DNA sequence: CGCTATGTTGATCCATATCAATAAGTGTGG
DNA sequence: CCACACTTATTGATATGGATCAACATAGCG
């Protein structure tokens, strides 16, 4: 891996507190690759040989069963994915494919496990990261089980708006087909759901979304920090 | 906490490898309580002051939003729950209530975090446990998004059968109302789903389930290790 | 033994999926 | 740069899974 990539990775919570020596040992065994769009990086069920770190681009995590497919999450720089499989030395539960041209670092899983044993700060960082991942999935499960698709979309838009700085207008960051799958619905239903939010001041034009009256939408969506906050 | 409870707890993966000194320090700060059925032990949103360990009985983890409620999981002895909130020092994402008379140990969260820093084996055990929890929730999410309720029930029954030792008959281990909620459906729908599985050899009488032809049911259910295996 | 909660069944309604057709983008090669 | 092909998005019509409402049965439990 080119040393120019080190600083970006070092800044991740996961690596920021570990000893230089250990960090460098991980980096020396790692390599970086550029992938074109739509490349399947990993397939669910495969052994987890590498911890992946996305440096640029974006990656879709998805799962399949019996001919059906669903998007589980989207990963964006700079972050790791499939940490749980790596530390458990267990098969991947999700597949991953690049959505666009992406630069991805690969650290051999056994190196991660070895350094984990040697570096307390790294171990602690892994715990924090895993706890975060776990809590995120629990929130998604609550979203899926407690809300209708219209409510999920409304809350999704409010979350997006929030991390777009609260602007009334912002762009969806991936295609609607994928958004539909992430939210657990069909593209047709998503299309109608956007219509269904018009009475609450939501309008869409291509990827551009406008939230005309945030409070009105919130009255409908009833966002809840225990489902919608990504920081807690 | 009475010392007689120590051995059971010590056997948990989470505590089995840590130094005696640290284990005892955790136990000294902990206490054990007997709760009657239907007691709400924790409420989602509350600060996570204690790591809970269920010693006997059973506990339902559930969440609510906007007047709706759903069962997220059931915890049985001997295991911990709400580990992620404890290590992150973040609010509980789920509420917990006893389903029956239950004996529960409470370890102050700050003790857990302190010992975590001091004991590498404990840290490693926490990582493994968290990774396991994470992967379980991912499996549930796949189950919810990729399968119909009939398919979820069929696979649930096959899993139960498996850990009942493969017997053709076994008992559901909680009331159908709760099972319905766990599987993400209404009690009425569960009742009909059991009927819907009759053509595949499933019959029910109260809590007693009989799987007449496992292979036939499997042909319908299409169980998948990446969703239904709890060990991987 | 009755009371209350749970489970079943039926009728109906609603949300969402599916199927089909069209429109609008998007990228590619001439 | 345009024309074509192909994917994505929208819209409508319809089907269906599942929820809701209501009535009744049943099982625990005091």
TrEMBL record, chains A, B:
<dbReference type="InterPro" id="IPR000595">
    <property type="entry name" value="cNMP-bd_dom"/>
</dbReference>
<feature type="domain" description="Cyclic nucleotide-binding">
    <location>
        <begin position="14"/>
        <end position="133"/>
    </location>
</feature>
<keyword id="KW-0805">Transcription regulation</keyword>
<dbReference type="Pfam" id="PF00027">
    <property type="entry name" value="cNMP_binding"/>
</dbReference>
<dbReference type="InterPro" id="IPR036390">
    <property type="entry name" value="WH_DNA-bd_sf"/>
</dbReference>
<keyword id="KW-0238">DNA-binding</keyword>
<dbReference type="InterPro" id="IPR036388">
    <property type="entry name" value="WH-like_DNA-bd_sf"/>
</dbReference>
<dbReference type="InterPro" id="IPR018490">
    <property type="entry name" value="cNMP-bd_dom_sf"/>
</dbReference>
<dbReference type="InterPro" id="IPR012318">
    <property type="entry name" value="HTH_CRP"/>
</dbReference>
<dbReference type="InterPro" id="IPR014710">
    <property type="entry name" value="RmlC-like_jellyroll"/>
</dbReference>
<dbReference type="Pfam" id="PF13545">
    <property type="entry name" value="HTH_Crp_2"/>
</dbReference>
<protein>
    <submittedName>
        <fullName>Cyclic nucleotide-binding domain-containing protein</fullName>
    </submittedName>
</protein>
<keyword id="KW-0804">Transcription</keyword>
<feature type="domain" description="HTH crp-type">
    <location>
        <begin position="147"/>
        <end position="215"/>
    </location>
</feature>
<dbReference type="InterPro" id="IPR050397">
    <property type="entry name" value="Env_Response_Regulators"/>
</dbReference>
């Amino acid at each position: 891996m080119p040393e120019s990539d080190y600083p970006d990775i070092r800044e991740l919570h996961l690596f920021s507190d570990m000893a230089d020596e250990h960090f460098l040992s991980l980096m020396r065994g790692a390599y970086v690759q550029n992938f074109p769009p739509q490349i399947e990086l990993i397939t669910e069920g495969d052994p987890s040989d590498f911890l992946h770190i996305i440096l640029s681009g974006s990656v879709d995590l998805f799962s399949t069963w019996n001919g059906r497919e669903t998007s589980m999450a989207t990963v964006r720089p700079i972050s790791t994915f499939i940490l749980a499989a790596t530390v458990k030395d267990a098969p991947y539960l999700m597949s991953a494919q690049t959505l666009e041209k992406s630069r991805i670092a690969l650290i051999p899983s056994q190196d991660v496990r070895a350094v984990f044993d040697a570096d307390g700060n790294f171990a602690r960082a892994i715990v924090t990261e895993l706890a975060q991942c776990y809590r995120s999935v629990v929130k998604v499960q609550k979203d899926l089980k407690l809300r209708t698709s219209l409510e999920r979309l409304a809350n999704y838009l409010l979350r997006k708006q929030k991390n777009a700085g609260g602007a009334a207008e912002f762009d969806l960051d991936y295609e609607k087909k994928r958004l539909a799958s992430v939210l657990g619905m069909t593209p047709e239903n998503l299309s109608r759901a956007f219509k269904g939010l018009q009475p609450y001041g939501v309008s869409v034009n291509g990827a551009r979304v406008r939230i005309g009256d945030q409070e009105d939408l919130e009255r409908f969506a009833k966002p809840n920090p225990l489902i919608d906050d990504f920081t807690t």
